[in-house]
Amino acid sequence: MGLGASRVESISTSMIRKMFEMAQKSAGKEIISLGLGEPDFDTPREICDSAYKAMQSGYTHYTSNFGIPELREKLAEKYREENGMDITSENVMVTVGACEALMNISISLFEEGSKVIIPSPSFVGYYAYTGIAGAVPVHLKTSLENGFEIDPDALNEVAGRDIDAIMINSPNNPTGAVIPEKKVRAIAEIAEDNDMWIISDEVYEKIIYEREHTSFGKYYDKVITVGGFSKTFAMTGWRVGYVIADENIIDMLLKVHQFNGVCAPAFAQKALVDYVGGNLPAVDDMVREFKRRRDLVVKRLNEIDGITCSKPYGAFYVFPRVEIGGMDGYEFTMKLFEDKGVVVVPGSAFGPGNENHIRISYATAYDKLERAMDLIEEFSEENK
Ligand SMILES: Cc1ncc(COP(=O)(O)O)c(C=O)c1O
Questions:
Q1: Which site in 28, 83, 182, 303 is 20 to 30 Å from 20, CA atoms measured?
Q2: Tell me: the pLDDT tens digits for 119-171?
Q3: Is ligand 1 within 6 A of the CB of residue 97?
């Protein structure tokens, strides 16, 4: 027997982690990391206080596998009122972050050989979840010229190939693209015509600028919606996410979740009950600051000869194309780190066809971003 099962061996260690570790090892050198996908803000004070109270009042044990009833109720209410979905708390299951939700969905829904459309570029996790479940990824390229939005015509062509599901993420990691309502409806219609599940990862729904967020679950029944609090409240370390789906799907997901995540931390669940809709001034401040940074980064990158960057409407990433000195995105990333100490992630980490791109996360202080843009400009000049 080999070291590991082949379905796990084929999964690559996240390039983002590798870049992060590389940066950590460079003690003494000036390093600016634009690599990681987490807000650089603190979890709002109100939530920390609420968690502390919850711990003191005994929320330190297992909860129901479904999550605490108050949180499920509040989530159902939010999705009915804000997202236009016809659901009750029975349609909600709380998970250990969105990651656990996505893994459980893949394991529960897919058979060996199930065909799953993964738009490229995509969140790196989608390849791992589907791979572990034995599903086959069907790539659907999105492009910088279209603002990285899924093109319904292109989807229509691929959807005819006996597809089981599509994984969609809007607002998007790594591009920041937000699918407008009209396209959400068109995509939902295509899914319905082809009897295809939509797994809609909406973890960035609150980090959005000029556009409104639209949930696929508003227009189609065979949608499994995934959400979480990691990004909205800068609480990546607390590990609370959730799934919204048909009750039969929730029951099926529970079979895996009961032995996998078991339950999200009890005090974290309780702390969130009053803040489910993201209704805190700290969130508005954070989003305003992200927008200011996005404007800086998009402007500065487009001023550099050989870099083209679309303007994203959500999340905290840009995914520019780099055409500098014949380097692909990987070579650009490595040399930029060596020469200037700026950490970005090569586009190839996010799926095929992205070799000439890099991902920049602007979840970093404004002055650091200004410095990083100076260094990228210098680097691009020096390597023309
Ligand atoms: C698109 C996307 N989905 C899911 C996650 C995972 O979020 P969580 O911390 O809730 O597990 C991330 C984290 O980076 C993400 O970018």
A1: 303
A2: 999 999 999 999 999 999 999 999 999 999 999 999 999 998 899 999 999 99
A3: yes
123 alpha carbon – ligand 1 mean position (Å): 8
CB under 8 Å to 25, separation ≥6 — which residues?
A: none
Tell me the HSE value of 343 on the side-chain side, using a 13 A CA sphere. 23
Residue 201, ligand 1, Cβ within 6 A? yes
pLDDT, tens digit (0-9, with 9 covering 90-100), for 325-378: 999 999 999 999 999 999 999 999 999 999 999 999 999 999 999 999 999 999
- 3-state DSSP call for residue 238? coil
Beta-carbon count within 10 A of 9 CB = 10
pTM exceeds 0.85, yes or no:
yes
**How far apart are alpha carbons 365 and 40 in whole angstroms?**
8
pLDDT score at 17: 67
Structure tokens at 229: 């609090």
Element (H, E) at 56: helix 45-56
pLDDT digits (tens, 9 = 90+) for 263-290: 999 999 999 999 998 789 999 999 999 9
pLDDT at 257: 96
The pair of three-digit structure tokens given for residue 213, joined into one six-digit string: 């967020």
Task: Go through the domains of the chain in sequence order and give each one's CATH number.
Answer: 6-42+281-382 (3.90.1150.10), 45-275 (3.40.640.10)
Residue 244 parent element (H or E): strand 241-244
| Mutate-to-test residue for ligand 1 from 20, 94, 99, 202, highest number of ligand atoms within 8 A of CB | 99
Q: How many CB atoms lie within 10 A of CB 46?
A: 15
180-230 pLDDT, tens per residue? 999 999 999 999 999 999 999 999 999 999 999 999 999 999 999 999 999
For residues 218 and 70, the answer to whether their CB atoms sit within 8 Å is no
Total count of residues recorded for the chain: 384
